[in-house]
Every structure is written in C-alpha cells, then in structure tokens.
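Appendix B. Chain record.
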Amino acid sequence: SPTSSPTSGDSQTGSSSTTGDSASSTGASSDATAPTGSTGHGTGTSDTGALTCDDARDEVSFFLNKNSPCTDDADCVTVDAACWEQPQDCCVIYLNKTYDPPTWLDVYGQYQALCGLEQCGCCAKVPNEPACVDGFCGPSQG
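Structure tokens predicted for this chain:
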C-alpha cells in the first residue's frame, strides 16, 4: 500500500555515515535578495513578489544539480523525495553525502507547499543502492 512521506527526514540506504557528518556544506547558499528559504536561483517571483511553484521547482533542480556530482560510489546517498516529479528511483533521489540536509528540507518543503504536494505515495520497490554513475550520484546499475 502507498505510504506518505513527510517533508522531514531522509534515508541513506547503503551508507554508514549520517547526514550530519559533513565537515562542509555544499547546499545552495542564500543570497541577500532571495526570499526566505530560497537559494536565489529560481526564475523569479510572481507579480506579488512571492515564490511560485515554478520557482520552487527551479530551486529543487538547482539544488539537485549542485549536490549530485561524485567521484566514487561511497560519495552517494539516497534521500527521500516522494513528491519530487522526477525521482531517480522509487521515491528517492541520489545526492552527494556532503549535501546540506537543512537546506534540502527547506528547498524541498517549499516545493511541496507551493506545488500542493503535501503527501505523496511511494511504490513498494526497494530503491537501488546509491552509486556514482558517469560522475553523478544515481541508482546502481546492478
């Protein structure tokens, strides 16, 4: 049966490290003119100055692109993303383990709220182990 996915928490299938271990953050940084929670890389704001669903989607895409490069399978972890419209595997995405979890939760939570995706179902398949595929974190090919 489908399960709902909260906006907080993440999983690291196949990884022994915890998400809080990173010595440095590679999460997208806020700029001074960006609205709270924004990485400042969206296409803009609505006429009212508020972020739109499209802006939030752009923020998620920017975060994923910035936090997916890798050099080795050990660099990669799985992260819950049940509501993301382009999951790389069943309800998860694959990121470099140095991603910044609070920034991810903020960017992803904003996307869910602005796009009306508060609860999403997941498939029953267990996601593939994380791997570094052609320089980017993704599902193992095996």
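Further analysis of this model is presented in Appendix C.
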